[in-house]
Every structure is written in C-alpha cells, then in structure tokens.
C-alpha cells in the first residue's frame, strides 16, 4: 500500500468515526430574565437612589442632589469652590444650553466643536473640567452609564481632571440586566458604552493608591430629581 493510500484510508476512517458519533443534544439556554426577576431587590426609586449614592461615595465620588431648577447654580458654586477656570460642554445638548443661558461670569464654557487633531494640546493641557450627561445608572454596582455621542465624545469623560456627570434620578436601574433590557441595548450600541463607578485610580506595588493617573481625578455627580430637593447640596 502506498503512503498516499494509507493517508487516505486513515482520513476516511477518522471521518467515518466522526460521522458515526451521535450529536449531543444542545442544552436549553438558561432563563436569565426569570433568574433576575426572582432575585431582584424589591426597591422603590428612593431606595435605589440611596444605594447608588452610598456606592459612589464609598469610592470618593462627590454626589450632590439637585433639582431641575437649581442644578446649574449648584454646578457653578462647586466650580468656584474648586477654583475651576473653564468647563468643557457638549454641542447642542439641553444641559449645555442651560449652562450657556445662565451666562456665568466665574466659569468659561468651552463647547466641544472641533476635531481632536486641531486642539489636542488645549484639551489635554488647558481644560479644567467637563460636563456630560449619564444615560442612566446601576444601583447594584454603583455605576454610571455613559453613552458617548458626537455631541459628547468619549474624551470628555477621560481627559479633564474634574468630570461632572448630570444624572436623572428616574433613570437609576436596580441592576445591569434591568438596564440593558429596559433600554433595549440589543437594538443598537454606540462605539463605547461606559460604566463609571468613581474617579480614575491606580495603585503601585507598594499599594499606594493614586487618583487621576488614567483619567479624571475627581468625579462629581449631580443627581437631578424632578421635584425640589432643597438646597441641592451634598449631605
């Protein structure tokens, strides 16, 4: 028998055994929705707010509860306290327009208008802070969900040293599964969907924790309620 014939015979034998092997029955997929429905906490919106806030503050995030009418005032007051010179805002966003309408004298507003290549040095060296809107948040893991757009690119939440995030209390979900299902993530995702749970931090081999190494050193959340929340200051 030639070497070629032997090789062909061995191949055919292997293929015959593979074809004769019974196909295993594909196991049924787990009912993920049913599991989360059975294990989800029975919380109202106030409890979700409290749980999210506690988780954020545990990792040195500033949280200020504000209303639809005073959030601009609170942001400007915080900016003065921190000595910020300027604030990067998105283009053609309702919250950016609200800030511009207030015409603050103490804070220069800089819209994100140009391609990054034309002003990279300014963005990295001269911008003190930025403001972006959170799509929603997850109480269970204490995370903000950011959905970058051409109006509010990813760099706005990555480069400036201080990152303000405006979050509507009504958009806080109990868990991640609830967020992706109720918001219909399967129907389309942006280039980046971001989960942020605190300011940027890292630690060296000596376990020394440092903030701001890979992103903003301060994260300030303006937790916006539909009703009046008093002075809007952090407790």
Query: What is the multimeric organization of the chains shown?
Result: single chain
Give the averaged pLDDT, no decimals: 89
Give the low-pLDDT segments: 230-235
Helicity range of the residues?
25-40%
Structural class: alpha/beta
Shape: elongated
Number of strands: 12
Q: How large a portion of the residues is in β-strands, by DSSP E?
A: 15-25%
| C-alpha termini separation | 88 Å
CATH class: Alpha Beta
Number of domains: 1
How would you concisely characterize the structure shown here?
The chain is an alpha/beta fold. It is built from 7 helices and 12 strands.
Structure commentary:
The protein has a single domain, classed as Rossmann fold (3-Layer(aba) Sandwich), CATH 3.40.50.10420. With 235 residues, it is of the alpha/beta class. The strands form 3 sheets. The protein has a 6-stranded parallel β-sheet, sandwiched between helices. Strands 8-5-6-9 form a 4-stranded mixed β-sheet. It has a two-stranded antiparallel ribbon with strand order 10-11. Helix content is 32%, strand content 22%. Residues 230-235 have low confidence and may be disordered. It has 7 helices and 12 strands.
Spell out the blueprint of helices and strands.
Elements: H1 3-20, H2 32-39, H3 45-58, E1 62-67, H4 71-82, E2 86-89, H5 94-102, E3 108-111, H6 120-126, E4 129-133, E5 136-138, E6 143-146, E7 162-168, E8 172-173, H7 176-182, E9 194-196, E10 201-203, E11 209-211, E12 218-225
Parallel strand pairs: 1-12, 2-3, 2-4, 4-7, 5-8, 7-12
Antiparallel strand pairs: 5-6, 6-9, 10-11
């Amino acid at each position: 028998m030639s070497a070629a014939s032997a090789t062909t015979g061995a191949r055919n034998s292997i293929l015959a055994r593979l074809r004769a092997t019974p196909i295993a029955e594909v196991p049924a997929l787990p009912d993920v929705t049913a599991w989360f429905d059975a294990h989800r906490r029975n919380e109202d919106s106030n409890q979700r707010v409290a749980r999210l806030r506690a988780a954020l503050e545990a990792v040195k995030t500033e949280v200020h509860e504000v209303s639809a009418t005073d959030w601009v005032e609170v942001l400007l007051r915080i900016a003065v306290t921190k000595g910020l010179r300027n604030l990067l805002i998105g283009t053609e966003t309702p919250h950016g327009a609200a800030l511009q309408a207030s015409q603050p004298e103490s804070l220069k507003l800089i819209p994100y208008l140009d391609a990054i290549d034309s002003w990279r040095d300014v963005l990295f060296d001269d911008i003190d802070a930025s403001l972006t809107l959170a799509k929603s948040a997850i109480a269970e893991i204490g995370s903000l969900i950011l959905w970058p757009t051409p109006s509010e690119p990813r760099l706005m939440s990555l480069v400036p040293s201080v990152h303000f995030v405006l979050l509507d209390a009504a958009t806080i979900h109990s868990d991640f599964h609830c967020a992706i299902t109720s918001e219909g993530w399967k129907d389309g995702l942006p280039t980046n969907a971001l989960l942020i749970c605190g300011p940027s931090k890292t630690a060296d081999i000596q376990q020394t924790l440092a903030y701001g190494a890979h992103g903003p050193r301060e994260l300030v959340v303006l937790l916006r309620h539909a009703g009046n929340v008093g002075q809007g200051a952090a407790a």
